[in-house]
Amino acid sequence: MIKEWATVVSWENGEALLSCDVKASCNSCASRSGCGSRVLNKLGPQNTHTIAVSSAEPLVPGQKVELGIAESSLLGSALLVYMAPLAGLFIMAGLFQSLFASDLAAMSGALLGGVGGFLLARGWGEKLTRRNEWQPVIISVGLPPDALRVETSTPQDNR
User: Which sequence ranges are marked TM in the entry (predicted)?
Assistant: First the structure.
């Protein structure tokens, strides 16, 4: 199970709205200055993602919760998103090349197959997200922000 901490934004009728911070893909690598991923992370906006998760336990805004998602669902969705357009691209390019015997036709087929694979993955992905095993779950709940109080005592109080 892949785990991540999130902050509660709101809770109503058994559904919690959670905010997850976007983390950069790398920060501690020795080759930070020449890393392409680090440069790409700086280009994009550093947002937070908001997701809705079912929770029978009442939650307070500002409370931290630990979310978990099964590795199989994450790997399955990544496979769908990356492989469906790639497979469509190669299949349609090969089909158009064999039917019309020209590079322009193969390029057109590749474009149509890639877009078609993307649309197929998008439609199929929407159906798969309705499955319970693909949904994130709350693993543990932290204390509400106002529940923890720290008191310090001076040495005179201990006598």
Answer: 74-93, 99-121
Residue type at 118 in one-letter notation: F
Q: How many CB atoms lie within 10 A of CB 140?
A: 11
Tell me whether residue 15 is in a domain. yes
Q: Give 86's contacts (C-beta < 8 A, 6+ positions apart).
A: 114, 117
The lowest-confidence range among 21-25, 62-66, 137-141 is: 21-25
The answer to whether residues 128 and 52 touch, using CB atoms and an 8 Å cutoff, is no
Euclidean distance between CA atoms 47 and 37, whole angstroms: 17
CB neighbour class for 146 (10 Å; exposed up to 12, middle 13-18, buried from 19): exposed
The answer to the question of residue 153 being in a domain is no
CA 90, CA 115: separation in Å to the nearest integer? 12
